[in-house]
Amino acid sequence: MKLLVSALAALLLVSGAGVAVADSGPVYVALGDSRAAGPTWTSVLSGDNCGRTPDAYPAKVAAELGVSYRSVACVGATTDDVLHGQRALAIRPVPPQVDALSPDTALVTLSIGGNDIKWTNLIAPCFPLVGGDGKCRENSAMQKAIATQLGALPAEVDRVLTEVRRRSPHARIVVVGHGGYYGTHGCAPDANMSAADAPTVADFFARFNNVLRESADRAGAEYVDIAGPARGHDVCAGAQKWFLGDFPRGNTQTRHPTPLGSENMARLIVEKLRRPRS
Question: What is the disulfide pattern of this chain (predicted)?
Answer without folding.
Answer: 50-74, 126-136, 187-236
